[in-house]
Design a protein that fits this description.
290 residues, alpha+beta, Arc Repressor Mutant, subunit A, Beta-Lactamase, 6-stranded antiparallel beta sheet, two-stranded antiparallel sheet, 16% strand, globular
């Protein structure tokens, strides 16, 4: 046999992990039509982590990703090598790595929107002493893509960046729902809608009436519908085509945002609407559209 460079070279550790996982079958999962098994498994592993459960054991990851533990371990080693997952120095738990943060910051549909909104959210949070959020609508609900901490009197940790809320909970999700077309609203309202508190709207007719009111007055209010004692105000952000592309909202203790008459405090509502209008103006000046 002639000497020289071999026709095939051994794959790197990361590549080998993916190849091994791709060819292994355990009978519990099948790739989607035209999909690549290894990629789908890797994505399921990444999606196993949530804001409520940022650290997971190997067994928990394997169960969530519908793979056996040996496959999960090999894929985790690959993801660690790519900085997408990290492991505790002492212990057996795993979490998402900083590489995921870098990927999220590079999503083009949100980069300009977040950059424009960030200083306005910071000012809004500071002025209202509440949490300020920027959110967009996705298939699974309203996703927070930016937020600012305004040194509130009580820190209520809800709606982290990247986390979605159902469209029937909170001022911003209901505002984004209200500005969908009638057919798309009906499709989303046909799904089961759970309640977080006794004040959460779940009936499609009630949400349709709420949406009509939101469109008429140009803002949304939510009281006690995610956490009792916490309220929120929201206003729409419009792109260069005049379409509602996102929502600006604040969330805080009810007395910070709602008066004794049950209506939003004028100062807080004005600040939310002003921030949303200024973000909209800047996006329109940039000819930005989703």
């Amino acid at each position: 046999m002639p000497r020289g460079k071999p026709a095939m070279v051994q794959a790197s550790g990361a590549e080998a992990g993916l190849h091994a996982a791709e060819h292994e079958t355990d009978g519990r999962d099948e790739p989607s039509r035209g999909g690549v098994r290894a990629v789908e498994r890797a994505v399921r592993i990444l999606r196993a982590f949530t804001p409520e459960r940022p650290w997971l054991t190997l067994a928990e990851i394997a169960e969530a990703a519908v793979v056996d533990k040996a496959t999960a371990r090999r894929m985790l080693l690959t993801l660690i090598g790519m900085d997408l997952v990290e492991q505790e120095p002492i212990g057996q738990r795993y979490a998402l790595g900083l590489g995921v943060v870098a990927l999220g910051a590079s999503v083009p549909v949100t980069v300009d929107l977040r950059n424009v909104a960030a200083p306005h959210l910071a000012g809004l949070a500071r002025e209202t002493r509440a949490m300020a959020f920027l959110s967009i609508l996705r298939e699974d609900g309203a996703m927070c893509i930016e937020r600012s901490h305004g040194n509130p009197p009580v820190d209520v940790r809800i709606w982290n960046v990247g986390e979605s809320l159902p469209v029937n909970r909170g001022a911003a999700p209901r505002l984004l729902l209200a500005h969908l077309g009638a057919e798309e609203r009906a499709r989303r309202l046909a799904r089961p809608l759970g309640a977080a508190t006794p004040h959460t709207l779940t009936a499609p007719a009630a949400l349709e009436a709420d949406g009509a009111l939101i469109r008429e007055r140009g803002w949304a209010v939510a009281v006690d519908d995610i956490v009792e004692g916490v309220s929120a105000l929201a206003a729409p952000v419009r792109d260069a085509r005049g379409r509602v592309a996102a929502a600006v909202s604040v969330s805080g203790l009810t007395p910070q945002l709602i008066g004794q008459d049950g209506q939003p405090l004028t100062d807080a509502l004005t600040r939310v609407r002003t921030a949303a209008a200024e973000i909209s103006r800047q996006l329109q000046d940039m000819h930005w559209a989703r």
